[in-house]
Specification:
Blueprint (H helix, E strand, L loop, with lengths): L2 H26 L2 H17 L10 H47 L4 H4 L2 H10 L3 H12 L4 H8 L3 H18 L4 H8 L2
Helix pairs in contact: 1-2, 1-3, 2-3, 6-8, 7-8
């Protein structure tokens, strides 16, 4: 590289760095973000230093570069904020649904019907293998490895059968969702 391009770059850097940073800060509001943008622009200019020898309106070039970088950063921040707000809305909705579900839960369910009978009927409706594995796991409290050894089957089979049991119990206990959740955490 010729010394001339190095000197031109240095002059541009010294003359415009702080002005560009102040301009960027007006839009991106953060000193750190503004400085990073300007440093990126000067790095890009350094990498393309062959353009320094060409007839070029350097102020227009720098202004366009800084404007575009600020737009990119602001667009990214807006998107991140919108996604965070959407997730927060979904979380709030989930909490509200859980609240309303518990609030609306019919306490008379435990008085009117025998919960134990409802659960027993649902478990009895499971296929035999599923039922045996579910009882050993959730009622007897055995670990999957113990059940696998006892029944001479693989742990994978235990996991598959438990998944089938949960799906069937969820369907059988659809009117008793909280009871189903209780069974999950036994």
């Amino acid at each position: 590289m010729s010394d001339n391009k190095h000197i031109v770059f240095e002059e541009i850097y010294l003359n415009y760095f702080s002005k560009m940073k102040n301009f960027a800060k007006e839009y991106v509001l953060s000193d750190e973000d503004a400085e990073n943008i300007v440093q990126d622009i000067f790095l890009e200019l350094w990498e393309k230093r062959e353009i320094l020898g060409m007839p070029l309106n350097i102020i227009a070039y720098l202004f366009t570069a800084i404007k575009n970088r600020c737009i990119d950063l602001l667009r990214h921040k807006i998107l991140v904020k919108e996604v965070a707000e959407k997730l927060q809305e979904e979380h709030l909705f989930t909490l509200q649904m859980k609240f309303y579900s518990l609030e609306a839960f019919d306490q008379n369910l435990f008085v009117e019907k025998d919960i134990e009978q409802i659960i027993t009927q649902a478990i009895d409706a499971l296929p035999e293998k599923c039922k045996a594995i579910f009882i050993k796991s959730k009622i007897e409290g055995k670990k999957q490895k113990e059940i696998a050894a006892e029944l001479n089957i693989s742990v994978n089979t235990i996991e598959t059968q438990m998944s089938i049991a949960y799906k069937k119990l969820k369907l059988l206990l659809k009117d008793y969702f909280l009871i189903f959740l209780f069974l999950l955490y036994l």
